Amino acid sequence: MDIPALEIQLKTLPNAPGVYQYFDKEGTIIYVGKAKNLKKRVSSYFTKTHDSGKTRVLVKKIANIKHIVVETETDALLLENNLIKKHKPRYNVLLKDDKSYPWICVKNERFPRVFSTRRVFKNGGDYFGPYTSVKTVHTLLDLIRGLFSLRTCNYDLHEEKIQSGKYKVCLEYHLGNCKGACEGLESEKHYNENIKAIKQILKGNFKDSLSKFKEQMMELAENMQFEEAQKIKEKVEVLENYQAKSTIVNPKISNVDVFSVISDESYGYINFLQLSYGSIIRSHTLEIKKKLDETDKELLELAITEIRQRFHSKSKEIYVPFPVDIGEDIKVTVPQLGDKKHILDLSVRNAKYFRMERFKQIKIVDPDRHANRVMAQMKADLRLHEEPRHIECFDNSNIQGTNPVAACVVFKNGKPSKKDYRHFNIKTVEGPDDFASMEEVVYRRYKRLLDEEQPLPQLIIIDGGKGQLSSALKSLDALNLRGKIAIIGIAKRLEELFYPNDPIPLYLDKKSETLKIIQQLRNEAHRFGIEHHRNRRSKSALNTELETINGVGEKTVVELLKHFKSAKRVANAKLDELEDVVGASRAEKIYNYYHSKSLK
């Protein structure tokens, strides 16, 4: 059967919730999406002008559309999630789940064992988890074993076998870790009461266990069994200590999932916290690579479905930073203040820390990916037409109008390229005129690059406000480079970024990598310029002192400095060393000048 034309397929789509699939001309599935209204959502791909180049390419490749109608939005979310993981379409964010997580199993048997496992079996018992940290599992198991005496053997403890005396107690019994159920020394009822309490602790509910232990403690104390009461008291303290460490917010907040998202140009990071009785019982951060410039809302909706499936969450309420569409079965809360907002902020902080750690790892393991990400971020933040792979920053330096100099520092791929740094001595400007000095050095720099046919930067940064920026623009106009190189000015006080012909400055997030790189450029230009300025002043001062010696002219000063490298060495030189350079007569005058000074 021939495939109908796309126009016909679009016209016949239903106005119902469902999942759509795009295929290319080879019949390969290239994108899967969900929609409240299939007709409206799919048609929007072909009627809108898309800003993203990736989306435009996707639309060009679509040769066939298939759809699946479902009952509810929740069904659409789950189906979309499963199809993405099954087919791994090229233009979808990929949801990888190649990691097995640990669980705590309460075995389905007489006198149940409690242990950690990575395998889940039907009818294998009650499973709690999965946990994202093995350390959490070990901590919980250590807590449980400290509070309750449980068997660790794998005996089949049927009543008949126990009564027949088939088993004998082992070392665990003699150590006090087990009550000897295998010999009938502990009743099934008492053991199951402990198991019930353990299940409540694993759910995050400590209240019942604490009440029970306190009752036992008081009863033992009343019966003068103080040693046993002390043991129960120690268990109460252990449980209260663990509860205090794990309780983050109001214990009334229970059975809630918390989600937050932060993203950059290439990746989204979604943090998940699960709360039970005010305690965080699970935390996980999912990294998603963007394919079509997905919004934070799209990433969060996709991740919520994936994470809840992965961790078998049955929570009926979620906290999120903004409204999301994830079906009618789940209550969506956007906290504004109080304990709920506190826990949402904690989730955001976890996502940010995860992102920072990933950046640090990538910087070490994959520096190219780090550079690509930073360049893409700078392009977006600074509203540039291309990535600023080559940036140059200019700074003037003069103190009380003396020895005016300028510095140009160069960054390539976000890192200093020190071999390309340049100093400038101001030649055409008299006095402390920062604007004229900036105009001179910018003109000289790019006149030379043009003459030598060297590559030009994608971005110029001027250390200064509107005045210095305007002066630099005059030079770019003179060289016919206006519009060919992006240029901005940075004012020191409030870190304002100025653009040509725009009176309103741009303010970047104080913690953004783009601002940090600009600040690093500005500080490096300042340091480099000050260093050169100091050298010039020092040399000028030394030269002036040598020239004040009667009978010593400019040529003699040059010869001395060329040989001795510094005025200090000239001052400390012996008479015969000076004679070898400038002759006996002038050597004696120089020697007497410095040594007569030291005698005074």
UniProtKB/TrEMBL annotation:
Primary localisation category: cytoplasm
Domain of life of the native organism: Bacteria
UniProt keyword list: Cytoplasm, DNA damage, DNA excision, DNA repair, Excision nuclease, SOS response
The keyword Membrane appears for this protein: no
UniProt keyword Thylakoid present: no
Residues covered by the GIY-YIG domain: 15-93
Family annotation (Pfam families): GIY-YIG (PF01541), HHH_5 (PF14520), UvrC_RNaseH (PF22920), UvrC_RNaseH_dom (PF08459)
CDD domains: GIY-YIG_UvrC_Cho
UvrC family homology region profile domain segment(s): 262-476
Limits of the UVR domain: 207-242
GO biological process: nucleotide-excision repair; SOS response
SUPFAM superfamilies per the UniProt record, alphabetical: C-terminal UvrC-binding domain of UvrB, GIY-YIG endonuclease, RuvA domain 2-like
Annotated GO CC locations: cytoplasm; excinuclease repair complex
Compartments where located: Cytoplasm
Protein purpose: The UvrABC repair system catalyzes the recognition and processing of DNA lesions. UvrC both incises the 5' and 3' sides of the lesion. The N-terminal half is responsible for the 3' incision and the C-terminal half is responsible for the 5' incision.
Subunit composition and interactions: Interacts with UvrB in an incision complex.
Protein name: UvrABC system protein C
Species, as recorded: Neotamlana sargassicola
Lineage: Bacteria, Pseudomonadati, Bacteroidota, Flavobacteriia, Flavobacteriales
Gene: uvrC
